[in-house]
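Hi! If you just cloned this repository, the fastest way to understand the data is to look at a raw example. We've pasted two of them here, unedited. The first protein comes first, obviously.
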Amino acid sequence: MKRVLFGAYVLFMSGSLSAQQNPDIDVWAKEYEERIKSRTEECRKKKPYFSEDLRFSKPDYVVFVPEVEPEKVGDMYNDHFQVFETPNGMMFAVWCQASVEGALDQHVAFSRSKDSGKTWEKMRVLAGSKTIAEGIAAKVAIASWAFPLVSKSGRIYILYNQFVPGKVSTNRQHTGLMMGIYSDDDGETWTKPEEISIPRTTNDGADTSVPPEWVVWQKPTRTGKNGTYLVGVSLHVHPTFHSKYRTVTEFIHFDNIDDNPPVKDMIVRWVMTDDKVLHIGVHCEEPSIVKLPDGRLFAVMRTGTGSPCWTISSDDGETWTPPRTLLTRDGGDPIPHPMSPCPIYDWKGNEAASGLYFMMAHNMFDKSSSSPWQNRGPLYLFAGRYHKDAEQPVWFDGPKRFIERESNNSFYTSLTVLDGKTVLWYNDQKFYLLGKVIGENFFDGKADVELYKP
């Protein structure tokens, strides 16, 4: 049995769906329908207690709390939480939502705030099915992992991964077309989806009718040449190449967003592809990028080796150095961490190049285990500082406690500077969508706990 935590309560559900590798949407529908029916009543009974659990992580902002009524909108799973602003100061949130991760109702959710994040409008669905029943009736495929880009004039683009029903794939959540929509009225109305072509590489399968298996998990930042958008991407390679590696890192440049092109005319360049992909061990994925005071870019990725890794670009993200294990500092210890999100952010803002950074990690890895997928327990922040002449240009202090839940701390986060405060936006338990101010106390040089050493 697999434990799935919603709020303070543990619900039990069976292991992998037998339909997981089946492209027939009706097969998925039948199994998920039965699951949701058995869980809905239990969730309703516990709904009044969610508000108490909501305060566990001491959030400063609350963006979304599920209604826990999947027959209306499947909202119990909330992930890939991207908060951003437009030039006029409005705030927006886009995320991946479903009744259960990977369910037929996995969709792109969207909300707005007109008062600096204090209150948020009712969530809207931009792509995918709102409910499993709707997915069955209309055969609307799941839409996942949306991310925003905002032009200098304020046009909001939302790009996302669109599964293609009827195509055999290795993973329906990762395999898909790159689709996009945009809004010129602060998210009030949106264009019809258009496809962006994804170049095929030597790490994709031979069947060209099956899209690549890719995920963009952080917001693109204006760290490319001349301030253009750049983002890292995880590529899940075709099983043919699993003897070499399973996931690798590439990068995407968006070169003409400020020209306000239609989605289909966006200039999207993928770099570090084919034999240039970044890899270390079997897994190298979920890259996050910060800018250094010297103009170089520094990226951190999660791995299956027991520690994150890092890479450097000296040419605005066009090329990157081979990944190396992330240490506390030159000559220091590896930072222990399982296969779990480990983003790095600039404390002064995504493109600030301030020299002050922080990274999230679990500070734990059991080397005796044969699996890198280990318990995602208490989560810590590691304050980082730029060191000009160091081999690893960012050195980290000891870990500071951030969230102390015993498990399920898998945060797909984003960052904004709001009213002069640095806010980390996180999806507590992949359930609540919250924001927390990261204050100067994280940079006082004092560690709450020692680095774990097995």
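Ok, and the second one:
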Amino acid sequence: MEPVRTEQVAALRRFNRYFTRRIGALDDHYLGQDRPLGEARLLFEIGDGASLRELRTRLGLDAGYLSRMAKALEKQGLVRLSTHPGDNRLRMVEPTPAGQDELKEQNRRANALASGLLEGLTPDQRAELTAAVATAQRLLRLAAITVTLVDGHAPDARACLDAYAADIDARFPEGFDPSDLVGPEEVSGTAGAFFVAYEEGRPVGCGALRRLKPGIGEIKHVWVHRDARRLGLARRLLAALEKEAADRGCDTVRLDTHATLTEAQAMYRASGYTEIPSYVDHVYAAHWFEKRLDRTH
């Protein structure tokens, strides 16, 4: 992968500095209320109620720091801390009526701030800015997702395959038989590989590679959770599988796909795959693809 250029790093840091100053993130009284951004954001994320474990994962916060902020909000009468009735290991936090009132006011002020920023632009400029922000959010989400090689027997690998099977069972007119999924031994160790994509600790995608014959690998079950689609994650998984195949000495990768999966067919063609005659008798296949790998990098 091409290294990140110095000017790209500088541009992102420059934007971060400008934006955090512009929205008042550095002020101890965020949005003019009597608390810093961290506490205000935590109150927002608590919403109608959540567990501290869920909040820690969602916000990527240290457990001790999160606990201190939650206790500070409790001391101010804005939230209540309690133990989950069904699991005494789980600490819950929910807003008090005063907390709900403050959150409403926080949302009102945040909307006013955003509206004030947009008022200085023409309608076309507003559309340009909001589209650019959406693109930035999509790419930042993609950048934060990790694609990790796991054992084919791992619980996350099997959970992803179960989700994949459920998705395509709903899409295929004939349904889908889970016995068609690759076995753990086919995608582990020297036999193959299995990748899981994680977003904030949660599996949101997968892809498998197995050896078809000497020098040829087969890519199977490239899947992305519906909440993580349209980010470019499927292509990233595909690239990881291709690199793994090349590292294992493969010159070529092949795959097949169902007739209804038109978006997958378009992705494979855009990624350099060429449609070929059937190379395997597979009940769910209508299109077969192949790609020669560059093993010089």
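That's it. A detail worth noticing about the second one: The radius of gyration is 24 Å.
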